Amino acid sequence: MKELISLIGAVTLVGILLFYGPICYGFVAMKFYNWYGLKDVLWPSVTLTYWNFVGMILLFAVMRPGTSASVKSEYKEESTVQLATGILMPWIVFLIGWLFKIIFF
C-alpha cells in the first residue's frame, strides 16, 4: 500500500513540475499581451511609440523557445541555483514587465 501511495505522489509531483513552466510563462505572456499588444488593437488611433515596441520585445522574449541542445548528464552540473532560477524566472520577467508598465505607461 505504501508503494502505491508513493507512486501516486511521484506521478502527481512530476505532472506538476512538467506543467509549472508552461503555465507560468503562459500567464506572463497573456499579461504582456494585454498590457502591450491589445491596447493598440482597441485604440487604433494611438500611434506606436518606442515604448510600445520595447513592450512587444518583452512579449516576444517570453514566447521565445528554449535551447534544444542536449548535453550528457555527466557533463551537466545540477545545482539548486539552476532549479531556483527555473522556478523564479517567469516571475522575475513578470516583475520587470510590470515595473516597465507602471513607469512608462
The secondary-structure element order is: HHH
Percentage of residues in helical conformation: over 70%
Tally of separate helices: 3
Q: What average pLDDT do the residues reach?
A: 77
Content-based structural category: mainly alpha
Query: How far apart are the first and last residues' alpha carbons, in Å?
Result: 57 Å
Largest sheet descriptor:
none
Topology:
Blueprint: H1 2-42, H2 50-63, H3 80-104
Helix pairs in contact: 1-2, 1-3, 2-3
Written account of the structure:
The protein is an all-alpha fold and 105 residues long. The protein has a domain at 21-64 and 80-105. It contains 3 helices and no strands. The protein has helices at 2-42, 50-63, 80-104. The protein is elongated and about 65 Å long. The mean pLDDT is 77.
What's the short version?
This protein has three helices and no strands.
Keywords:
mainly alpha; 3 helices
